[in-house]
């Protein structure tokens, strides 16, 4: 994830994305979505990582 200072937004490099969902959970404005996964699947992944 990198920050675009001109536009004031963060950008995810899809080529480096591992599909973990960390960027989705960390986005304070909920502007990021993870393709090919439901919100429930993302939450389950994050909960599993914390246990």
Automatic annotation (TrEMBL):
<protein>
    <recommendedName>
        <fullName>4Fe-4S ferredoxin-type domain-containing protein</fullName>
    </recommendedName>
</protein>
<dbReference type="InterPro" id="IPR017896">
    <property type="entry name" value="4Fe4S_Fe-S-bd"/>
</dbReference>
<dbReference type="InterPro" id="IPR017900">
    <property type="entry name" value="4Fe4S_Fe_S_CS"/>
</dbReference>
<dbReference type="Pfam" id="PF00037">
    <property type="entry name" value="Fer4"/>
</dbReference>
<feature type="domain" description="4Fe-4S ferredoxin-type">
    <location>
        <begin position="8"/>
        <end position="37"/>
    </location>
</feature>
């Amino acid at each position: 994830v990198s920050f675009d200072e001109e536009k004031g937004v963060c950008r995810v490099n899809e080529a480096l994305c591992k599909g973990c969902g960390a960027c989705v959970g960390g986005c304070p404005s909920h502007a990021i979505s993870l393709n090919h996964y439901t919100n429930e699947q993302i939450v389950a992944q994050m909960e599993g990582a914390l246990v």
